[in-house]
Amino acid sequence: MSPAPTDLWWIGGSPCSGKSTVAGIIAAARDVPLYSCDDAFERHAAAGPTLKKVTAMNIGDRLAQPIEVQVGDVVRLYREEFPLILADLGNAGARVVEGAALLPELLAGIGVPREQAVWIVPTEEFQHRHYRQRAWAHELLASLARPDQAFTRWMRRDIAFARLVADQARDLGYPVIVVDGTTSATQVAAAVHELLSRPRA
């Protein structure tokens, strides 16, 4: 893979951590476009074996798998997708890049310095509370025989993924922000802005 561009700021993390809102604030403050990995996912979905496997499964079958299998699939599909994200970015110039697909190992692999990347993860309690407020999450599971059980497994998967991402980022020397709902998105964005404004080491 090509070396990391110096005019990109990367905001990764786990789902339902508020990172999309924060990334939008950062992009607006820096007057640069925002690239959302989630928005690009559908275009990339047929690119690799794990991407094809996961997108072909219905939500019930996906969540019925052992948690470690689900997390492993998520990691593999993001590894498959990352070259496509880089191809999308190309030489498009300065922008904020945001998404759960931005695994710390992948950014480290292209030499992204710690001053250009940050990961946001929620506490378990915040994640549960935030997901329960999202109507689409309940609608997604409504047709399943045991939606409450499926929701619990979904939360367990995302909690395990958040832990993996945070541990990986810290091990690689990248900053991690843990959100618990006691600070606003604006306050979290201010902390992210400060981290992404540090001089290169």
TrEMBL record:
Which domain of life does the protein's organism represent?
Bacteria
Annotated SUPFAM superfamilies: P-loop containing nucleoside triphosphate hydrolases
Q: Write down the InterPro entries for this protein, in alphabetical order.
A: P-loop_NTPase
Protein name from the UniProt record: Uncharacterized protein
